[in-house]
Amino acid sequence: MAANSEVVSNKQVILKNYVEGFPKETDMLVKASSISLKVEEGSNAILVKNLYLSCDPYMRARMSFNQDPYFSSFTPGSPIEGFGVAKVVDSGHPEFKKGDLVWGTTGWEEYSLIKNPQGLFKIHHTDVPLSYYTGILGMPGMTAWAGFYEICAPKKGEYIYVSAASGAVGQLVGQFAKLMGCYVVGSAGSREKVELLKNKFGFDDAFNYKEENDLDAALKRCFPEGIDIYFEHVGGKMLDAVLLNMRLHGRIAACGMISQYNLSQPEGVHNLMNVVYKRIRMEGFVVFDYFPQYSRFLDAVLPYIREGKVVYVEDVADGLENAPAALVGLFSGRNVGKQLVVVSRE
Fold this sequence. Notes:
Elements: E1 7-15, E2 28-36, E3 46-54, H1 59-62, E4 81-91, E5 101-107, E6 111-114, E7 121-122, H2 139-151, E8 159-162, H3 170-179, E9 183-188, H4 191-199, E10 205-208, H5 215-222, E11 227-232, H6 236-245, E12 246-254, H7 273-277, E13 281-284, H8 294-306, E14 314-318, H9 323-329, E15 338-342
Parallel strand pairs: 8-9, 8-11, 9-10, 11-12, 12-13, 14-15
Antiparallel strand pairs: 1-2, 3-4, 3-6, 3-15, 4-5, 5-7
Helix pairs in contact: 2-3, 5-6
């Protein structure tokens, strides 16, 4: 601990043990620790006060034991981590100073000591809500932008389908597609979310997948001429139905498959021969690969926000004590829009 430094209480969200099946609030524990508000002399670390934390579906994979180098497991007994917005309290790193606002990977706690801050992004544009850097101007926004523009290469007039369309990424993909002059349909898990897609985000049509007994029939109703681009969030039965409805030379950007995350045995996909004879290009991607293009992304998206061409809906939980419920709620579709947690509004 640094000499002559103030030590404060530090509330944390701890993962108790590795999770199997559907995660529960009781898999996590909120407890108080303590932390010094000064970094060690000669250290390159920074000490941040966390303001907003992002709840994201990919975090489920990190709650189970795995050896994936891209999504390494959380450590039981330690705070979980994810994307967030924070303010620098103290810095031993030449590129960061006290008072800087940053977004990137941080701990689920009031204060975090970040030993390798090179991966953080400085926040320079504060004329938009800071919470947007957990969403539209952070990882989910980059995911929507990279997946749609870079991987799908859309053309005006094409037919676009977005699953989990009211979430952090889907709501943006649909709006980007409308700005391109495309026809856009989304699916979601409640009537409230369907109305949001049509009336708030400007989707041409939307349906509640929970009310559809036959997903293939639902897609044929919405896309009588087929689908050019599918932005994949769900996997499983939804992907199977989409493959039957893709057009020749269709593109599928796969950024997640939330229907599979809590299964002990993943579901198989039965209609993959459509990829061959419809010449479909299906590409998975991880947004980290596109972080070097962040300045390009900001140049494209900030004007949309400022001009009111894109809107963003957030579902906000107040306080770290409500963070476990907010994260678990993602997997039952409890959130409406981008789920985030306010740690502090300072």
